[in-house]
Amino acid sequence: MLVAHLVHGGAIAFSPDWWLWLAEYTRFAAAGFILVSGMTIGLVFGRRDGAYLRMDRRAGEVLVAHFAMTLLAYALLAPQYPVGPLVWQVVTLREGHDLLPFYVVMLLAAPGMLWLLRRGLGWLLLLISAGLYGLDIAVPGTFLLPLQDKPEQSTFLVLRWQGFFVLGVWAGYYLKRFDAWPNRRKLAVVIAASLVTVTCHLLAYDEQYGLNINPGLVFWKQVLSVPEFVKYLALCVTIFGWTGLAWRWLASPMRPMATLGRHALPVYVAHVYLLAPLAALSVAVPLPDAGKLAWLVIGVAALWAFAVGVEWLQRKWKPTRYVAAPAIVVASVAYMFVWQLL
């Protein structure tokens, strides 16, 4: 997510040629994050009892993390904002970014998804998901979170993006079955996904390449149009597929990165506050396009160090996981209150 926001969000400016390919690769982060989140639930909890309680507790953690991230941002950037109205807006999900609230909705719906999968009704789950996506295309805004009334906070429309989460849960539930496929079949799927990815890329950016071959397909992330959905999905399958086929060689070098995955929620919150310093450094220290890749490496390394610190703290004091976000909420509100008094 950090690399995607630095590149695709324009925090670090690359030339058009570099941006075209870097942004296209890194922009899969949103769909990849949601897809992997769903896969984790399908794989870990698909055949376990008590999944509802685990999802319920995790949803609570994510919701409090959303409160903490939003209130801390205001405490740092706009401490003059009236505390009472702000807290009410945040708690009622009328303020902040919409990814974590979207994730909360998905976590609360996950037990129902697992219930269908356990009864061999995966086809029905996919059909319901496709129906909800189609409903929002036919009647835009059928279901919106409160904060999605503002266009700038409407990135992850629930009925559109739930498709990736549902596909993730479905794929995670059947992952062992897919793993048992012969490599020849896996390779055929990955090559097909790669061809779809390249085709979608050329259609989406046909003008930049001087091709003019797009028959009118709209690739639009904000509302996740059908062509964009296909492009995202093909890119995710391509990246995950080639990674899986090469895993025997990647397992050892990638092992340190597992620390990031184990602490995905605090790492996601932390990356928001790393964007501005890295963007400022990239302006203060001008580098050619190839050199700017160093800022991306530095950012990932900083997040890895943060994740290592989180892991160390949790080892020393296990309640850290449950008290950190509430403590940030209290500290942010207290800081704004004192700042306004002074």
Describe this structure as you would to a colleague:
The structure is a single chain. Helix content is 74%, strand content 0%. It is mainly α and 342 residues long. Helix 6 (99-118) packs across helix 8 and helix 7 (122-138) runs antiparallel to helix 8 (158-173). The longest helix has 28 residues, at 289-316. The chain is globular and about 65 Å long.
Q: What is the count of DSSP helices, taking H or I runs of 4+ residues?
A: 16
Number of strands: 0
**Which structural class matches the secondary elements?**
mainly alpha
Radius of gyration equals: 21 Å
Q: What is the overall shape?
A: globular
Estimate percent helicity.
over 70%
H and E order: HHHHHHHHHHHHHHHH
Mean pLDDT equals 86
Largest sheet: number of strands, sense, barrel closure: none
Low-confidence stretches: none
What is the fold's blueprint, element by element?
Blueprint: H1 2-7, H2 16-26, H3 29-45, H4 51-77, H5 83-91, H6 99-118, H7 122-138, H8 158-173, H9 175-179, H10 183-204, H11 226-245, H12 247-254, H13 258-262, H14 264-284, H15 289-316, H16 320-341
Helix pairs in contact: 3-8, 4-6, 4-14, 4-16, 6-8, 7-8, 10-11, 14-15
